Amino acid sequence: MQKTYRSRPRDEVAERIECYIVEQNLQPHGKLPSERTLCEEWGLNRATLRSAIRKLIVEGKLYSQAGSGTYVAPPKMRRNLQDMETISEAARREGRDLKTQVLYAEIIECTKQLSKKMQLRLGHKLFAMQRLRSIDGMPAVLELTYLDAERCQGIENKDYGQVSLYETLRKDYGLALKNGRESIGLTYTSEQEGELLKVPENTAVFFISGRMFTEDGHCVEYFKSLNRADLFQFSSELVSPDESI
Amino acid sequence: MQKTYRSRPRDEVAERIECYIVEQNLQPHGKLPSERTLCEEWGLNRATLRSAIRKLIVEGKLYSQAGSGTYVAPPKMRRNLQDMETISEAARREGRDLKTQVLYAEIIECTKQLSKKMQLRLGHKLFAMQRLRSIDGMPAVLELTYLDAERCQGIENKDYGQVSLYETLRKDYGLALKNGRESIGLTYTSEQEGELLKVPENTAVFFISGRMFTEDGHCVEYFKSLNRADLFQFSSELVSPDESI
DNA sequence: CAGTGGTCTAGACCACTTG
DNA sequence: AAGTGGTCTAGACCACTGG
Fold this sequence. Notes:
Strand order of the largest sheet of chain A: 4-5-6-9-8-7
Helix content of chain A: 25-40%
Largest interface: A-B, 35 and 38 residues
Shape of chain A: elongated
Distance between the termini of chain A: 29 Å
Number of strands of chain A: 10
Oligomer: homodimer
Strand content of chain A: 25-35%
Order of helices and strands of chain A: HHHEEEHEHEEHEHEEE
Structural class of chain A: alpha+beta
Largest sheet of chain A: 6 strands, antiparallel
Radius of gyration of chain A: 22 Å
Number of helices of chain A: 7
């Protein structure tokens, strides 16, 4: 009485695609032949091939662009919560291209909720900025930053699509934000967030928020960001769960 | 020049299913009519209906069991990372049925990696235990716990399928584990983990690990757990990201 | 053993990207 | 304008669940 292993075409095709990538030495963002071409060459039904491709997409190994093609997904970018590495530092470390687009930047007055978070009085001037950050051309992080504008007057006068915010804080204002607390969770994108990050609505993304403090313990920055789960991998220092008993 | 809104059948059908659930007052675990029945009654192609069902499944609104049927998914169980609420406390709070199965329980010697995590010397006696915990009959959490066995001698003599581990620590050993650090990430199930949690291999699950300390700062417990993403929702106390500008 | 969800085949139209 | 992925139709077989 032995379990019959009737391997399904979908899984075989998925493996075949992975082999193809290796054999052809396809690099990240490398293009696969079109679905119809593969179907013909491999004698497949398109639905079966698409099912295999979908599997590899959810596994983070492929991505596809309507009207264009199917491509090899680049490895996820690793970020660590322990050290306070900014995304620009992480991108530099991994040799990635980081572009930043400022969606919103204004001086606002501290609200009740922000006042709690940052320990500032109501009405205190804050610099609020929302930025969309792209890794290797793919929208990856949607970031909302609040800065104590009274501690860094004129902070709003630079274009943080071009200049590093942290470098400005350090060089122009002598603020070295070394102490911080971050926390992570998962949420699902709203319609608007999905459009900005170029993912469907209700896609699971990492939600990271945190505060940065000056050396004398004052909160200068509060931020929250959405990070695409298909592009990032948040590693803790822990051993992999695969090392279970 | 207006964008034409040609709503796709799939999305219409998905909405129709949601309406059906409300109209028929279907409760969690309530059964939908069979796919073929719905196709006939609503004049649909089965592939289209299945596409709609798949969408609702990834959104956590339905689940299906091969050979049996498609059912209304119960709301996800909420857990919070900030407070150190155990899963049994969370289950009680939400009025859910929690069952625990011990897969492995033994005294082992502290390894190099564990020694780093727990700040204990190599060879220190640890109580290692792996448990599978089920919510309302569905395998939900795969948990691996390491306890400082020299601080709680005889800890291995109870059946933690029946008795609360934390209650035992508190009552029998006077250990109130109030201080802890947890961290969360995403990983993908191995074949074995998938079988235990009753999900396919390579399913995305939450990976939570953490350490619990005594009041005098000694690490007594190190744990890591896999939590099915379709059953849990991890919330932080922070404002929702939807409140972005 | 009848009914279920899971899968596969074969063929078609659509909106979009790209040369 | 040609080619691409995304979707839809119609019909079929499979392994499994449950009475």
